[in-house]
Write a structure and sequence with these properties.
mainly beta, Porin, 6 helices, 17 strands, globular
């Protein structure tokens, strides 16, 4: 029965995609940012959501550039997103490891999953008043069957001059470290831009690489001088109580921080002819209580990252290269005393590199990506314990693999709709420390190889 449903849904997606492919181009720009500026979506994006130099400028200036002379936008700059996806794993997951709900449809083998929807989001994206703007995302997560306040960035920005050169300055309130960043080489908006919500993922990741998303909220400030030097920082605190609680609405806080989490960012960039290059560094320090605790000793995590981005953009051809390296020092003072770790300290190193090519044609944009990822760190048999699918037989966090992706997007199909299709394949060479029998229950790294098909509808 479910295979019939899979086949029918796939045919429906193909028919919808074919219909959209041959619709005539439309000069109206959307979603809300494009409607506000009167510019095409491709002015700000290469393959959505990756930004162009102008897209980065638009974000840095507070989402406030507008074709209107009024100090506010009317109607309000609202936009929406619906994601539909299909996931196929090389080998079945343990039975009942995926919740089968109204939005997530699982076959009897637990290795084919339809997410209808995977996600539905409503955005306030654009100017609020004069130089104040926002990117606020409310999301229904089909896998979790829950509603939450997702990525949120509210900022005020303005310009002045310093040493006869333009200086952009701004302040931001947001709920994810690196979300305020405008480069796609840092975690919040880094590749892959979407992934299967049900496929197994490596047990270890650095705190700055998405672990604190919506777990913390705070305020930051930044300056950008002469289109060359960017410096910024922010102070975060947990979102389960106090003034930042609204920034974690709908999120269950399981990473309780003690006090303030400082974040910093520095970038040097240069743009010449059709080329763009940036080199940057970023990091944070966080004191976090062991899970389930709200007072007493804490563990400390110190993350330092380096990143670079190169872009070559001409009329029909775009090439982008991103690379990120993150080192995390882990002080397990609290967890070690509780018997949750075998060592009092440790470290993780994460390296990612991703290249993407886009060809712009009259019938839409076609793209292809290839990326490599690697995480290495200390062995810890308690921290990375054996367990079906998610565990580590050796106590090692080491994982690496490749991601390949094909994309097609047709922005501004009609006044109300844009489309992106992605076909992604993730290939693991090592998972949680081993190539074979990594979990101690007979599962190999390659068993987690994932074929993932995603449709994005934006309006």
């Amino acid at each position: 029965m479910l295979w019939k449903m899979l086949r029918t849904t796939w045919i429906g997606w193909v028919l919808i995609g074919g219909w959209m492919l041959f619709l005539p181009p439309n000069t109206h720009a959307l979603p809300s940012f494009a409607r506000q500026t009167g510019m095409s979506c491709t002015t700000c994006h290469t393959m959505w959501p990756e930004l162009t130099p102008f897209g980065r400028f638009f974000k840095l200036t507070g989402y406030s550039i507008s074709k209107s002379t009024k100090p506010y936008e009317f109607p309000p700059p609202l936009a929406g997103l619906v994601q539909l996806s299909f996931t196929h794993l090389k080998k079945d997951l343990p039975r009942k490891s995926i919740e089968d709900n109204w939005a997530t449809h699982v076959t009897s083998t637990d290795n084919n999953v339809l997410s209808l929807p995977q996600e539905m989001s409503l955005y306030y994206g654009g100017r609020i008043y004069r130089h104040l703007g926002a990117f606020v995302q409310g999301t229904f997560d089909g896998a979790e069957n829950d509603v939450m306040l997702d990525m949120t960035d509210i900022r005020y920005a303005n310009t002045t001059t310093l040493w006869n050169k333009q200086l952009i300055y701004g302040v931001t309130v947001n709920n994810s470290p690196t979300l305020q960043d405008v480069w796609n080489s840092t975690p919040a908006f880094g590749f892959p831009y979407a992934a299967s919500p049900i496929a197994p993922t490596p047990a270890a990741s650095t705190i700055i690489d998405g672990t604190l998303d919506q777990q913390v909220g705070g305020m930051g400030a930044y300056v950008f001088w002469n289109n060359m030097i960017y410096a910024g920082g922010a102070l975060y605190r947990t979102t389960d109580h106090g003034i930042t609680k609204i920034l974690g609405a709908g999120t269950t806080v399981d990473m309780e921080t003690d006090g303030i989490v400082p974040y910093w960012r520095l970038v040097l960039q240069r743009q010449w002819r059709k080329h763009y290059l940036s080199l940057g560094t970023f990091g944070l320090t966080a004191d976090i209580y062991p899970e389930g605790m709200h007072h007493g000793p804490t563990d400390r995590f110190t993350d330092i990252g380096l990143d670079t981005q190169y872009q070559y953009i001409v009329k029909s051809h775009i090439f982008t290269l991103h690379s990120t390296w993150i080192h995390e020092y882990q002080d397990w003072n609290a967890s070690f005393d509780l018997g949750n770790t075998a060592k009092k300290s440790g470290h993780l190193n994460t390296f990612k590199i991703h290249g993407h090519y886009t060809y712009r044609s009259p019938i839409g944009d076609f793209g292809g990506s290839a990326g490599f990822f690697s995480t290495t760190g200390n062995k810890d048999i308690l921290l990375y314990a054996p367990g079906p699918a998610d565990g580590s037989r050796t106590g090692s966090p080491n994982s690496n693999g490749l991601i390949f992706e094909l994309d097609y997007q047709r922005l501004e199909i009609t006044n109300f709709l844009s489309l992106k299709c992605s076909l992604q394949y993730t290939l693991y060479n090592k998972f949680n420390g081993s190539h074979s029998n990594y979990d101690g229950f007979g599962r190999d790294a390659s068993d987690n190889n994932t074929l993932y098909f995603l449709l994005w509808f934006m309006f």
